[in-house]
Design goal:
With 287 residues, the chain is of the alpha/beta class. 37% of the residues lie in helices and 18% in strands. Strands 1-2-3-4-5-7-8-9 form an 8-stranded parallel β-barrel, surrounded by 4 helices. Strand 3, helix 5 and strand 4 form a beta-alpha-beta unit. The N and C termini lie far apart (37 Å). It comes from Streptomyces malaysiensis.
Length: 287
């Protein structure tokens, strides 16, 4: 806090001296911890509505996760990544900047998901390794078209800089005023097809995809695109049993040809049972 108030230039200095690494390491797999939820006003974990609101606690959990063997890096917004830079926690790690966080959870404009986070030039300037954008498409919400257009141009801008961008697509709908992502095989297949065709090139595009409701359908779903993909964790439920079921789904999907790894957040940082270390080590073991 003292550094931020008295020496804000320290952030750029820390970014300039950060030790970098290739996106894909010797293992050929990726294990990324996600922590970009707070910028969308999404702070709940299980039954605790403000679990992610304590920034010191979140940073401690992130530092612990990043210190575990097999963890390749982190996905977060500028504020969190800059804290981690100042803490020296990002040396030798893959750093993904979260790009669009304007679709605030529960807002009337949630699906008009503006790019209020990292711009491609910010990711390049800070020497980060990739970006991530969320693409939720509701066929009944015109805001989805704005998100699609801005997402396509962001992918173009990233490709011009030869920076990978992870696109997280969903077919969504409003149910009782709440945006719900459709995890049926048909919906996930459509979302992958739409995301793969965005922008003037897909050379630097990765997919960040959910596991379908029926994990056995993932093999057919992932045949929709040749783009490399990682699995997203999402909300795995409130109980240890829910978490075990999620792990089993990830295990099955990780064996598919285009699936290169995992991007998981709350379920590892705030596990239903056990410590952060145990949850992270278990997820790494799936790879």
């Amino acid at each position: 806090m003292t550094v931020r108030s008295r020496h804000p230039e320290a952030i750029a200095e820390a970014a300039a001296r950060r030790v970098r690494r290739p996106l894909i390491g010797d293992s050929g797999r990726l294990m990324i911890v996600a922590a970009d939820h707070p910028a969308r006003g999404s702070l709940a974990v299980g039954g605790h509505k403000l679990a992610m609101a304590n920034r010191v606690d979140l940073l401690e959990r992130l530092c612990m996760a990043l210190s575990r063997p097999g963890v390749d890096g982190v996905l977060a917004t500028a504020d969190i990544l800059e804290d981690l830079l100042l803490l020296g926690a990002l040396d030798g790690k893959v750093v993904l900047g979260s790009m669009n966080r304007g679709g605030l959870a529960g807002a009337s404009f949630e699906l008009d998901d503006r790019f209020t986070g990292h711009r491609p030039q910010d990711i390049e300037r800070l020497r980060f390794d990739a970006g991530k954008l969320l693409l939720r498409i509701d066929y009944e919400d015109a805001g989805s078209l704005t998100t699609m257009v801005t997402a396509a141009r962001a992918i173009d801008d990233m490709a011009e800089r030869r920076l990978p961008v992870f696109v997280e697509p969903f077919i969504s709908r409003r149910t009782g005023g709440k945006v719900v992502n459709d995890l049926s095989a048909e919906a996930v297949t459509k979302s992958i097809a739409i995301a793969s065709g965005l922008a003037g090139t897909s050379a630097y595009t990765w997919l960040k995809v959910p596991v379908t409701e029926d994990a056995d359908e993932m093999a057919a779903v992932m045949e929709t695109s040749t783009l490399p993909a990682v699995l997203l964790g999402g909300d795995v439920g409130k109980s240890p049993q829910d978490q075990e079921e999620a792990y089993e789904k990830w295990r099955k999907a990780l064996g598919l040809p285009t699936v290169q790894g995992l991007v998981v957040g709350r379920s590892l940082l705030y596990p239903a049972e056990g410590s952060v270390e145990t949850a992270v080590d278990t997820a790494v073991g799936l790879l």
